[in-house]
Amino acid sequence: MGSSSEPLSRGLYAQVEPYDSGFLKVSDVHTIYYEQSGNPQGHPVVFLHGGPGAGTSPGNRRFFDPEFYRIVLFDQRGAGRSTPHACLEQNTTWDLVADIEKLREHLDIPEWQVFGGSWGSTLALAYSQEHPDKVTGLVLRGIFLLRKKELDWFYEGGAAAIFPDAWEPFRDFIPEDERNCFIDAYNKRLTSSDPIVQVEAAKRWTMWEMMTAHLIQNNDNIKRGEDDNFSLAFARIENHYFVNKGFLPSDSFLLDNVDKIRHIKAFIVQGRYDVCCPMMSAWDLHKAWPEAEFKRQHAIRDARVGL
Fold it and tell me: Domains, the chain, ranges and CATH?
């Protein structure tokens, strides 16, 4: 992962196109899309996208030096180009952990670096704790540990104090007598038998996150939130995971199992003003894992590291 004495790059790398892409059947229900770019003989790195349900985008390749890295991106179950679209069946954290291993084996990669932001950091921790011998290093950005206090902060009114204008359309979609738990109320609508209700709920859910993900609102993000196809997968899958507490055995599971990965070279990168993934989670991970290098950025979600 480079010497700490080397200067950090503050920008993103030039856009590159994949030299390989395909689909991998990972269960009797799901097939995932994957692609490879950069240097075919380079150091392998797998990018774990956020959400869950967001899918990958071409810009994700730009985190990595294409001359040094063999860059692997894939869309998690139900997201992006993976099929079936927005499917919740056989879709859990541990299914995704197993998929990462299946993809590694399919690509004949003995071990690789793991990079994840937001939900991607959650999945990166779960995967590396399950398969520490397959991980050469970790870069975790915008830490999300899927604890109750994090979900309450973002979905039950905490972040609304900072973005009240974005919160009101999200809140007002739910009748007052169901506002004791917005995650449950949206789950009812995102799994409705009426596709019109599903789509409207998905757009409200997705737009709330798209409008709060950057300190200065990002028009490209907002356009994604307006897209029915994207928002349906994003909202349904994300809400499915949150209703089920990430399919983790306990609220502090990822912190409790840091010993399994303590020996792995790691960077924790956190924007101090990140509203979706507030800094308390990165701070808690840093305290549990002081061996990992902790980099605080005075930006919101898009803190970058030189790779």
Answer: 18-145+249-297 (3.40.50.1820), 148-247 (no CATH)
* Tokens 């995650």 found at: 183
- Report residue 281 CA to chain centroid gap: 14
Cis peptide before 58 (omega within 30 of 0): no
Whether 12 and 63 have beta carbons less than 8 Å apart is answered as yes
Q: What is the DSSP string of 83-103?
A: BSTT--TT-SHHHHHHHHHHH
Taking only the tens place, the pLDDT of each residue in 170-196 is 999 999 999 999 999 999 999 999 999
Tens digit of pLDDT for each residue in 292-301? 999 988 654 4
Put the strands of the sheet holding 266-271 in their side by side order.
Answer: 20-25, 31-38, 69-74, 43-48, 112-118, 135-143, 266-271, 293-297
* Per-residue pLDDT at 165 exceeds 90: yes
Report the pLDDT averaged over residues 88-112.
Answer: 98
169, amino acid identity: P
Least confident of 56-70, 102-116, 151-165, 218-232: 218-232
> How far, in Å, CA of 277 to CA of 267, rounded?
17
Place of tokens 């993934």: 277
Residue 277: predicted pLDDT: 96
Residue 4 pLDDT:
41
User: Rounded to an integer, what is the distance from CA 163 to the centroid of its chain?
Assistant: 22
For residues 50 and 41, what is the distance between their CA atoms, to the nearest angstrom?
27
